[in-house]
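User: Just a sanity check before I run the rest of the batch. Below are the C-alpha cells for the first item. I only need the designed sequence back.
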C-alpha cells in the first residue's frame, strides 16, 4: 500500500499563497491518481481536486477553482497543491490521498490517505 506524507502547512494571511506537498512512497507515483481534500472541525471531509495518472485535473469544489491547482512530479514521487488568494474559509486540515483506479466520484473514497497538514488563514 502506498504511503503519503503532507507538508507545507502553516499560517498565512488572507490573500496570501501556500504550496502544500505530498510525498508518496511504497510504490511509484505514476500508478495512482492523487487528490487533495480538507476538513474543518465539525464538518465532513470534502474533496477539492484530483489529478489523474495522465495529468488530467478534476475539480470537485467550486470555491477553489481559479485559486487552487494541483500538479505532479512522477520522477520525484511528489504531488503539489498550489493555493493562491487564500481566504479565512480555507483554513482546515489538508489531506492528500491516492487511488490506483483513478480519481474517485465526488473526490472521496480513496484507498490511501496521509495524516494531514494544518493550514490557518488569519491576519
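Assistant: Here's the designed sequence for the first item:
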Amino acid at each position: 500500500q502506498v504511503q503519503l506524507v503532507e507538508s507545507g502547512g502553516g499560517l498565512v494571511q488572507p490573500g496570501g499563497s501556500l504550496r502544500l506537498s505530498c510525498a508518496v512512497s511504497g510504490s511509484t507515483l505514476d500508478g495512482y491518481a492523487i487528490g487533495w481534500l480538507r476538513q474543518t472541525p465539525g464538518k465532513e471531509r470534502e474533496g477539492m481536486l484530483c489529478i489523474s495518472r495522465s495529468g488530467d485535473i478534476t475539480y470537485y469544489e467550486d470555491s477553489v477553482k481559479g485559486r487552487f491547482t494541483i500538479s505532479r512530479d512522477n520522477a520525484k514521487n511528489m504531488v503539489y497543491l498550489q493555493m493562491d488568494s487564500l481566504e479565512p474559509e480555507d483554513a482546515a486540515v489538508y489531506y492528500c490521498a491516492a487511488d490506483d483506479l483513478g480519481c474517485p466520484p465526488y473526490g472521496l473514497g480513496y484507498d490511501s490517505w496521509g495524516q494531514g497538514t494544518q493550514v490557518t488563514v488569519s491576519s
